[in-house]
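Figure 2 data, in text form.
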Amino acid sequence: MKKITFSDYDEYKRTQIEKSSRQLYDAEGKHIHWITQKEAERVAEHFKQNSLKANFGICHGSKIGFEVSLFRTLLGFNIIGTDIGEFAENNPYMLRHDFHEVSDDWLRSVDFIYSNSLDHSYDPRKALIAWCECLHESGVMYIEWSPFHIEAHGADCFGATADEYKKLINETGFTISDVIDIPEDKSEFYSVERTIFACQRNSDIT
């Protein structure tokens, strides 16, 4: 695993916001988003087949909320997004929030968690433990990994291989129930194969 260290929390936060602000839109003013339609559809299909409860979900690190809109449409229940940047305040379904922290309202009550932003964590173990505390016992969490997540640089401050992701997930209160492979899509802005780890909270977690 590889990590970028920051002098303090303010530097971490500033680095994240500056990078996200630069990558919100392309030269033509079109919103740049990492998640693909096919990925969202595969995740939504898996959740529908494997969930027992579908009332509330969270997409962590979702900038201005593109994936939030996708999953709200595909799944049809209340899903919100979090992001550390001020641009999150422009979307009624987004909350400006550091995903390393837990809101008391979310404890053991989140049915669906999705994130492709674990590589933006200054402490991925802390982030995953926080998400575990929020996941309902019948909920499903989806963590995306791609080859772009191997190296650590700048705001992408955590880098790890797929096997290292799996090990970390298993060490923080989860069991990986399924692995979903998303082929590379040349039509997307970010054209890369992706792996989604579908995770459930261990039954012995209190």
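Caption note: The radius of gyration is 16 Å.
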